[in-house]
Amino acid sequence: MTRHLKYRLASACALIALLAAGPLRAETTLSFLIDNGPDTLVAAEALVEAYAAKHPDITIEIDQRPGGGEGDNTIKTRLATGEMADIFLYNAGSLFQVLKPEQTLHDIAGLPALANIAETFKSVSSAGGKAYGVPFGTSMVGGIFYNKKIYRDLGLSVPKTWAEFMANNEKIKAAGKVALVQTYRDSWTSQILVLSDYYNLQASVPDFATQYTANKAKYATTPAALKSFERLKDVHDAGILNEDFGAASYDDGLYVLANGDAAHYPMLSLAIGALQQNHPESLADIGFFAQPSDDASVNGLTVWMPPALYIPASSQHVDDAKGFLDFVGSVEGCKVLMGVNTVQGPSLIKGCDLPADVPPAVTDMLPYFKDGRTAPALEYLSPIKGPNLQQITVEVGSGMRLPADAAAMYDDDVRKQAQQLGIPNW
Amino acid sequence: MIQSHPHSRKSPYPFWFFLPAAVIYGVLFLVPTVTSLWYSLTRWDLMTAQFIGLENFRQFFSEPFLVRGLFNTLVYALVTSGLKTVFGLLLAVLLSGQIFARGFLRTVVFFPVLVSSIGIGITFTVMMHPTRGIINEALGLIGIPGPGWLTNPSLALLSVALVDLWKGVGLATLIFIAGLATISPDYYEASRIDGATRRQQFWRITLPLVRPATVTVITLSLIGGLRSFDLIWAMTQGGPGFSSDVIASVVYKQYQAGFYGLSTAGNVILFLLVGIIILPLTFWFNRREVDQ
């Protein structure tokens, strides 16, 4: 009997000793959820490492999720069930609004870094007048990537109007090259000609975004908006596309642009990161210009905002998570990002200038920003984006559906999103 | 007598023996089914659900690509089920005969069933590439210009159905082989003595007697075809455009877009569709069996 008791006492003592020998200092572990892009991971790791050097008591564990629609669902489900990581990366703009930030996220008002973050970014990562996110990366733009070597060889110059652009395409085709690459295997890439045309659309209909959100302006009945869909038909009907446009993937598109088989690829500037990773030697020959309109005096860039880092309302370590967000939003954090990640446009953090050796495609963008010839993409001005746009643009771009029909179909498609968000007047 | 009064006989097991199974069935099957019926009547964003009556069903049926998806689902189910039944039976007859390396050939036919649909989908997508795919390159060698298997809107769905046939015919064959094995060799012997040809034997003996297997194959492959999703998603994602969309892929896209109520309504429709087609079919098959 006494022996039994001794055993029990001994094991209890051992247990207490074990517990006491645990962490001497209060250490915090933060979870950090990012998407599964290889360049995202590199950037996140660099930030975490730099932060850990300054704050040894905080450990940040990175976790990855899928991208695209599947990723959207992961985020929404984890937020709804209160199981979100302490910090997570997600889009700003219309996708951010869908998360119902005021219910699910922790606002970061008063964060010192906010003072230095560009107003354009804060406006797309705020809800109800409160800021929720800090930018993860530089701003991005949509437009046309082109192969400078082909332009030099054929004596072409950067087009200022759509007609000049199509004339260039004809010359390139005559020279036996692919004039314009389209990659509908990855259907999201088919939207770029429509979305990047927004600068031109807002130049002729300045209040389109407001009217569109209020269910008054429609793609089908606004000629300048319909034009965006007509561009896709134009390039298809002109016969200037790569033969396998229906089966080619995003990577195929970058490959033929990089190796000089193709001259133009309409794409977001996030492609610079992928080019850097897969075809670094080609970057010197890749340039960039805005999607031209019919009028040479209207020539500017449609701008996308980078994703942001957010803190969910369910986080148990709000203060520590805020510390990390403050670091990412600071000039120091911005420099860390620029050190590992390709710059895709101007920075959104004041005082964080671009390095001197940016690729030519970025240099080509800067004049537009300098002259103020930029406009945010529609998804940052209106919370409504129809989920089927990419299928519809594949149809127009493959000659399966006429632009007017497609625009009307898209107008129907956005209705569901507006109703789901509970926007008045729908 | 005992059969006709099942309740009068006391079960040898106490009632609570059924509880674990009942709880699992209730939690994993009954509760989700009932809640999904409820959510299909709401506008749901995972956090709040607003009751909107039958609006989701109205919306679902008013979508232009849904009608297409419904039609495609039926075409896909009929094509894959029909082809699997025909080819499954023919392969089973072949592989039940006295042929060289029978066991090995049976394994070869069954093998694709074991491979993941996603893997098969990705592989065939590469092979069906219009200019660089091995299929069109092979056709090019003999002077036939191959079509855009997955990029031609009128071909895409059928191309996927053919891959589905390749993947699923092994299971149909296996069921038919088992069915054929139950047919007594006496029938064949007797008919041979009576002078029946091989063709007559097939139509008069094999086909009628392998009926239970045929019913199983048709029912299983029809249900599989109606709710098919993985292969289509891996190969075309419903594209180009909406041309190879089936109900399941439309539902998945609604779900991806965050229309949770709408996609739940889509699943309820799919559930009803499968029920409407399969229940009478099973009933009809079973009655025919009794008649015989």
TrEMBL record, chain A:
GO cellular component, one term: periplasmic space
Main location class: periplasm
UniProt keyword annotation of Signal present: yes
Keywords per UniProt: Periplasm, Signal, Transport
Signal peptide from the UniProt entry: 1-26
Gene3D superfamilies in alphabetical order: Periplasmic binding protein-like II (3.40.190.10)
InterPro entries reported for this sequence: Bact_solute-bd_prot1, SBP
Annotated localization: Periplasm
Statement: the UniProt record of this protein carries the keyword Transferase: no
Annotated family: Belongs to the bacterial solute-binding protein 1 family.
Name the UniProt record assigns to this protein: Extracellular solute-binding protein
Lineage: Bacteria, Pseudomonadati, Pseudomonadota, Alphaproteobacteria, Hyphomicrobiales
From TrEMBL, chain B:
Keywords assigned: Cell membrane, Membrane, Transmembrane, Transmembrane helix, Transport
Ranges of residues in domain ABC transmembrane type-1: 70-281
Compartments (UniProt record): Cell membrane
Gene3D superfamilies: MetI-like
GO biological-process terms attached to the record: transmembrane transport
Top-rank lineage group of the source organism: Bacteria
Transmembrane regions: 15-39, 74-95, 107-127, 155-181, 202-223, 259-285
Membrane-related topology note: Multi-pass membrane protein
Keyword Membrane: yes
CC per GO annotation: plasma membrane
CDD domains given in the database record: TM_PBP2 (cd06261)
PROSITE patterns: ABC_TM1
Family that this chain belongs to: Belongs to the binding-protein-dependent transport system permease family.
Annotated protein name in UniProt: Sugar ABC transporter permease
